[in-house]
């Protein structure tokens, strides 16, 4: 690992001012050499960042530690409710804090469930929600310095005709990463917003769904974070008491790993199981958390029963283009969508 300098940021605006580049920019190089220029990079829990540095994929000159910024890990509920949000989760809140938080568990259940099944207990105590949403993809070609693929500024995707069993089944024709954040699957279903701040202290808000960037828009970054910006919070909208949300994950093993497939559902039912509103999001399926809009449309205004749910679950896979080794994700995701809907509708 290259030597680097260390700065303790004391405020979000100071950290934003020090962040000269994003990790995506610092890792993109035409000749395959990670940039070791003047880059100063934000560090939260450091779980993903240090991995990249140890693999020599990233050589920042300076790390800007966010962990000492007062209040950036706070989760504030009703007392802080505003017109645009009901629950504010500071970007430095850890996955463990979120999984254990009583209000998150009760009102935004899918998020608590997604945090609870991410990684291992040790990692969850260190990993922050902000860092989790901004971690880089786990495509094994991307993570190996030897392969200089398109996403790092190279000329080809090695996964499309290589080992692609963990890759995307949607939107996979140029770069077939799956979005690495499990929490993002739930947060998109819950229609979360992101709050960001620049060095002048100016805040902007963006729907999380719009913050993520697909390879067709820009193959070299996964999100719309700009240099000189910091994520300060994740904002959750008010949820009616009738809204139920569920997150389900299927992994190769019970714990300690990213999902093979995961699904989040946010379902608002009127009496008699009449579907008022539903969001269905597939994780580990596409380069960004994937909204299964055909399935959502199939449920809108319907009375939910087992047959209606089963049909919608099939439609969730409409338009999928599995690669040579990941066709198994089709029945897996269909089953997860069906089970998540059945659970949210209290049919099981
Ligand atoms: C064995 C293992 C299993 C795992 N399993 C899962 C899993 O199942 N699901 C899952 O989702 N994840 C999983 N992870 C990934 C882990 O959850 C993430 O690496 C972690 O959440 C990153 O958070 P961090 O705080 O350590 O971020 P860091 O590593 O500190 O930062 C990550 C990125 O975010 C940027 N950043 C961090 N905070 C901010 C901010 N506030 N504003 C702007 N930029 C910021 C950094 O510059 C960097 O680019 C696993 C990791 C391991 C090692
Ligand atoms: S899937 Fe994307 S990250 Fe992986 S090798 Fe292809 S271009 Fe690179």
What does this structure look like?
With 348 residues, the protein is of the alpha+beta class. The protein has 3 domains: 5-66, 2-Layer Sandwich (Uridine Diphospho-n-acetylenolpyruvylglucosamine Reductase, domain 2); 75-134 and 179-236, Uridine Diphospho-n-acetylenolpyruvylglucosamine Reductase, domain 3 (2-Layer Sandwich), CATH 3.30.465; 243-344, CO dehydrogenase flavoprotein, C-terminal domain (Enolase-like, domain 1). It is built from 13 helices and 12 strands. It has helices at residues 12-18, 23-26, 47-54, 95-100, 102-107, 109-116, 121-126, 129-134, 182-189, 208-211, 293-299, 306-315, 329-344, and strands spanning 5-8, 40-43, 62-65, 75-76, 87-90, 193-198, 203-207, 229-236, 243-250, 261-270, 274-283, 290-291. Strands 4-5-8-6-7 form a 5-stranded antiparallel beta sheet. A 4-stranded antiparallel beta sheet has the order 9-10-11-12, sandwiched between helices. Strands 1-3-2 form a 3-stranded parallel beta sheet, with helices on one face. It is globular. The structure holds flavin-adenine dinucleotide and iron/sulfur cluster. The site of iron/sulfur cluster has 13 residues, from loops.
């Amino acid at each position: 690992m290259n030597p680097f300098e260390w700065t303790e940021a004391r405020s979000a605006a100071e950290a934003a001012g020090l962040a000269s580049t994003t990790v995506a920019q610092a890792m993109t190089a035409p000749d395959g050499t990670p940039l070791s220029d003047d880059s100063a990079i934000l560090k939260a829990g450091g779980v993903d960042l240090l991995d990249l540095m140890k693999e020599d994929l990233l050589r920042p000159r300076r790390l800007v530690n966010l962990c000492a910024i007062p209040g950036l890990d706070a989760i504030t509920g009703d007392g802080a409710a505003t017109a645009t949000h009901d629950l504010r989760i500071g970007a430095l809140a850890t996955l463990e804090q979120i999984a254990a938080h009583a209000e998150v568990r009760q009102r935004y259940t899918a998020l608590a469930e997604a945090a609870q099944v991410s990684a291992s207990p040790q990692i969850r105590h260190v990993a922050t929600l902000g860092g989790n949403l901004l971690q880089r993809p786990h495509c094994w070609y991307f993570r190996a310095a030897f392969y200089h693929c398109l996403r790092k500024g190279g000329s080809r995707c090695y996964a499309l005709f290589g080992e692609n069993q963990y890759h995307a089944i949607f939107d996979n024709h140029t770069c077939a990463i799956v979005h690495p954040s499990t929490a993002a699957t739930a947060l998109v279903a819950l229609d979360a917003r992101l709050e960001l701040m620049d060095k002048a202290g100016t805040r902007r808000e963006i729907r999380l769904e719009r913050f993520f960037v697909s390879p067709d828009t820009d193959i070299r970054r996964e999100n719309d974070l700009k240099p000189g910006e910091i994520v300060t919070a994740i904002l959750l909208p008010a949820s009616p008491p009738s809204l139920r949300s569920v997150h389900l994950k299927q992994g190769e093993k019970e714990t300690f790993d990213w999902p093979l497939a995961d699904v989040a559902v946010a379902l608002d039912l009127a009496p008699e199981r009449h579907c008022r509103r539903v969001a269905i999001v597939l994780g580990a399926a596409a380069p960004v958390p994937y909204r299964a809009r055909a399935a959502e449309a199939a449920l809108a205004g319907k009375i939910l029963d087992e047959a209606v749910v089963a049909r919608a679950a099939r439609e969730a896979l409409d338009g999928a283009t599995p690669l040579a080794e990941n066709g198994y994700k089709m029945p897996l995701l269909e089953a997860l969508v069906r089970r998540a809907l059945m659970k949210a509708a209290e049919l099981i």
